[in-house]
Hints:
By secondary structure, the chain is an alpha/beta fold. The chain has 2 domains: 46-199 and 390-425, 3-Deoxy-D-manno-octulosonic-acid transferase, N-terminal domain (Rossmann fold); 216-385, Glycogen Phosphorylase B (Rossmann fold), CATH 3.40.50.2000. It is 45% helix and 14% strand. The protein is built from 15 helices and 13 strands. The protein has helices spanning 2-7, 12-41, 65-77, 109-117, 174-187, 200-212, 234-248, 261-264, 266-275, 291-295, 307-313, 341-349, 361-370, 373-385, 392-425, and strands at residues 53-59, 82-86, 101-105, 121-126, 142-148, 168-171, 193-196, 222-225, 252-255, 282-284, 299-302, 319-322, 350-353. The strands form 2 sheets. It has a 7-stranded parallel sheet with strand order 3-2-1-4-5-6-7. The protein has a 6-stranded parallel sheet with strand order 10-9-8-11-12-13, sandwiched between helices. Mean pLDDT is 87; it is low at 1-21 and 27-47.
Amino acid sequence: MVNQLFSLYIDPGTGSMLFTVLIGILSAAVYLVRTLIIKLKSGAGRKADKNRIPLVIYSDSKRYWNTFEPICDELEARGVNTVFMTSSPDDPALSKEYKHIKTEFIGEGNKAFTRLNMLNATLVFCTTPGLDVLQWKRSRSVDYYVHIMHAPRDAASYRMFELDYFDAILFSGQVQIDQIRELEKLRGLPKKELRIVGIPYMDEMMKRVEAAGPAPKSDKTTVLLAPSWGVSSLLVRYGETMIKNLLDTGYHVIIRPHPQSFTADKDVIDRLMAEFPDSENLEWNRDNDNFEVLRRSDIMISDFSGVMLDFAFIFDKPVIYADIEFDKGQYDYYFLKEEPWSLTMLPKIGMGLTIDNAAGVKDLIEECLTNPKFKETRAQAREEIWQCRGEGASNTADYIVAKLKQLEQKEENENKKESGKKAAGK
């Protein structure tokens, strides 16, 4: 009996592959049945398919609502009928009241992929990468897939091939377009439609900064330690040493671990919080919204967390970054001839923190706070990667509306052409 049970075991990798094959078969079957029904009913192709959704927005996590909300608000104001699908049961989108946008929780993991792989829609818009790479397959009943980058970073910072199979990608800077064109050329891929639209969530945060005004003055310099999570993060690798060095500066220190750290690095975080409890010069921050902690900090120390660029570009404040060796092997960076923009930009807008200079972190902080060159280079880097500032949501909505109109016109022309052939055949 035990042997029989073991003989039925399927390893996770094989199980994932089998699931992908199964979804592909089911998707093909659904597509064929749907097409047959439509043809039998009307002979008019997709034009007669009343179940077809014009626009689907998909979010794999609630943390991307700050990108999608300003875009959805624009589409709502323009009366664009949309279905917003999310894989987070507590996504803020689900409680937002819209007239033209229907929000729906479609499940997590394979359940969500099952739904996505069988979509019947004109256009799918998302921040999720990996289309046609693993479980997420192109639906035969979707005309166009559009990806929008949600942060000021390299397009090549995604894992290998994760952007290859979209029809269009929306960016915030020319450097991102240049990277995608280089990857397309290397891989012999057809050219995608690439547009610069801006960064909607950064526009909204900038509005908050301007409305809030200057942060309350403090008699001490406030240093924010905001690392990422995982085995290579600052707190995991150098937590005790780093915190001791910062406390020795006499500055006020705020430690804001990445939310995932409390799960993935729980033992480390628990140990550090017990060893270094809240005090007059130290606080641990777990606010859901990071706006206030960013606003009242004078300088940030981080590793490879994206919030570092928010701090530098939106709040216009200096950063110190962990100068650790970055493994490009899993990312599209690997294929590029030149060094990634982000790695060449960091030394210009801040100072690198290493094992050798960690004891002198106070000198690094003072240099970053007082040397005017860092403010100048932050402005230069911001211009390169964050274009169309203040216009991200409106530019994105403009693109979506225009693309929908183009796709619908193409469908109408094809239907007329098909009808004409049938009429001539009679």
